[in-house]
Amino acid sequence: MNTLQVELGDRRYPIYIGCGLLDQTELYIKHIKAKQVMVVTNEKVAALYLGTVLEQLKAYEVAQVILPDGEQHKSLDVLTQIFDTLLANKFGRSATVIALGGGVIGDMGGFAAACYQRGIPFIQIPTTLLAQVDSSVGGKTGVNHPLGKNMIGAFYQPQCVIADTDVLDSLDDRQLSAGLAEVIKYGLIRDAEFFGWLEDNMDALLARDKQALAFAIERSCINKAEVVAEDETESGVRATLNLGHTFGHAIETGLGYGEYLHGEAVAIGTCQAADLSRRKGWLNDSDVERIIVLFKRAKLPVYPPNALSPEQFIKFMSVDKKNVDGDIRLILLKAIGLATLPVGVDEKLLHTTLASYRS
Ligand code: NAD
Ligand code: GLY
User: Fold this and answer.
1) Residue 37 C-alpha to ligand 2 middle, in angstroms?
2) Is 249 a catalytic residue?
3) For the chain, where are the E strands, in sequence order?
4) Quick check: is 218 catalytic?
5) How does pLDDT run across 224-240, given as a tens digit for each residue?
6) Ligand 2 pocket member 69 (CB < 6 A)
7) Where in the sequence is the domain holding 259, given as residue range(s)?
8) What total of structural domains would you count in the chain?
């Protein structure tokens, strides 16, 4: 097992990464302060891993809530089920929430913990590659709104992250690829050496080589933890983690949550951001080609859905947390391994990119 730290002063916390962690009872005990524990998960993950987690919690008073599976259920409406269960069980301020699942469950469980009685402790047990490399680390929690992705939420850090790499064995190939989109992101925004490593090792990752996966997860978490430690609440460098996300969120919201996986939408959005960066004279043709080829090799889509016109893209992109006074601001690339902070873009250039960068 490897342990990384997210350095946030008195709220610093460990990320445990390794195989066979789900049944290491002491990892749970170390981070649970009182008797009441509530496990939040979904139907699919419950069938696979809830039993193992409950086995480790025999010494506690445990409640569980099993949510419906899918991005379309990451809503205020469904969130209420968590509060209902906490209240029905008379859980108090010392109770701990354990979020067992992918990014949807992590974001919702974390947000419920942030809100319930104005904040109770929570633990992240991420079970998708995407959640292990990104969403479980850094304390962004929340739900979607029909008009905008992740528009309702809070920054709220977990007590720890337990990333058991064995659980990725049951993840299907499409979900593995979706996670790779966020892995590639770290190479693009701040770690050119890692980007090169990904070019050399993409086939091993897709073949689920354990060593390659462990390295990619750890390197991603190191990158994420460093960014979060520098800028927890996104007043600066943390925004770079949003590379491709403004385009991607427009795809997710515009087509209806769940149509494209988050990672797939991010892959397309990152290629759009790379194309726009080239039009601004920052990337050259071969940089953009390298980026598109790597996403393709990761079995991710690279072109936007034809169902979304440039005008529709712009409409949905105008609802984004990086925007200022309604003006769209994007993370772009100066080079592979170097992202910009949010920059305003000329709407004509954005429109040209959206109209030209298509399959
Ligand atoms: P997800 O949570 O929907 O999980 C994907 C699918 O995999 C689901 O069907 C889930 O039930 C299933 N699954 C989970 N673990 C499994 C396992 N071990 N074996 C088999 N199936 C398993 O999606 P995701 O890609 O994990 O997360 C996407 C979400 O994360 C989005 O809502 C996105 O906005 C959010 N996100 C948040 C942050 C953040 O910083 N908080 C960062 C990136 C993404
Ligand atoms: N996934 C973006 C962030 O954590 O800031």
Assistant:
1) 27
2) yes
3) 2-6, 13-18, 36-42, 61-67, 96-101, 122-126, 140-145, 148-155, 160-164, 329-330, 333-335, 338-339, 343-344
4) no
5) 999 999 999 999 999 99
6) no
7) 173-356
8) 2
pLDDT at 356 over 90: yes
**Residue 319 predicted with pLDDT over 90:** no
Average the pLDDT over 342-353 and give the result: 95
Residues 55-103 have pLDDT tens digits of 999 999 999 999 999 999 999 999 999 999 999 999 999 999 999 999 9
* Catalytic-residue membership of 323: no
Query: What's the rounded Cα separation, in Å, for the pair 248 and 251?
Result: 5
Catalytic residue among 42, 144, 150, 242: 242
* Domain stops at, among 144, 170, 196: 170
Same structural domain, 118 and 12: yes
Q: Indicate whether 95 and 195 sit together in one domain.
A: no
Task: Please answer whether residues 67 and 105 qualify as being in contact, where contact means their C-beta atoms are separated by less than 8 angstroms.
Answer: yes
Find the CATH number of the domain harbouring 320.
Answer: 1.20.1090.10
71 in the same domain as 101: yes
Tens digit of each residue's pLDDT (9 = 90 or more) over 129-149? 999 999 999 999 999 999 888
Catalytic residue chosen out of the listed positions 73, 190, 262, 322: 262
Same domain? 74 vs 56: yes
Rounded Cα distance between 10 and 237, Å, is 21
